[in-house]
Write a sequence for this structure.
């Protein structure tokens, strides 16, 4: 399927156009203003670069998090609007599984990859995966996504794992002191992230009703009621 892929889980956004195992166009940018406006302009730029009309799209994939509240909401809402407007299916992809995916492919089946997202004051979001049947099928989830402080993460994570994502200095120090045996994965900065997003969506068979896709929260955001 000719698939538009949107990753807005952080202030570094990615939009791509994927067909099969080919990335027709992909752009990454650092947020400087209003995410929704920059996202829409980047989508148009990607479509123009690939010489593809919006009406030709057959599916949309979006990163559902965990990540930044505003950026994720902008990405999911934009993806839903496009999918509903074009009457095409939408798939949501989990950020931590996406972060782990490029480090699983080609490695030994027993390799464990721990993906980490720095959730700020909420702690560290993390999950662990093994290759399973990836990329023909989804990676195998070893530890489901959860939140915790560095020491909690180290205590609950598999030993001798490959670690990727947003590792903080406090987490690195806790890993070194624990003696669990760990390796930090190289940054996959030059890998086509949108291709892995499309492949994960297909591996999970996740395409369906756009209205059923929503942001994934490990902890519901605080909502402040303004009193007049």
């Amino acid at each position: 399927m000719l698939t538009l892929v949107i990753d807005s889980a952080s202030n570094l956004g990615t939009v791509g156009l994927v067909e099969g195992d080919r990335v027709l166009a992909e752009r990454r940018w650092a947020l400087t203003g209003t995410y929704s406006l920059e996202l829409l302009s980047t989508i148009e730029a990607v479509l123009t670069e690939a010489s593809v009309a919006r009406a030709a799209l057959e599916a949309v994939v979006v990163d559902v998090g965990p990540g930044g509240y505003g950026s994720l909401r902008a990405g999911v809402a934009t993806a839903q609007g496009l999918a509903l407007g074009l009457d095409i299916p939408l798939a949501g992809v989990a950020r931590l599984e996406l972060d782990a995916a490029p480090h699983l492919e080609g490695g030994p089946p027993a390799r464990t990859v721990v993906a980490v997202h720095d959730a700020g004051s909420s702690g560290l979001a993390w999950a662990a995966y093994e290759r399973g049947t990836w990329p023909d099928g989804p990676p195998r989830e070893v530890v489901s996504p959860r939140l915790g402080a560095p020491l909690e993460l180290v205590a609950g994570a598999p030993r001798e794992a490959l670690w990727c994502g947003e590792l903080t200095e406090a987490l690195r120090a806790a890993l070194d002191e624990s003696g669990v045996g760990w390796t930090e994965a190289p940054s996959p900065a030059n890998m086509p992230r949108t291709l892995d997003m499309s492949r994960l969506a297909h591996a999970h068979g996740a395409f369906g009703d756009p209205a059923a896709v929503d942001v994934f929260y490990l902890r519901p955001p605080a909502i402040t009621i303004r009193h007049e």
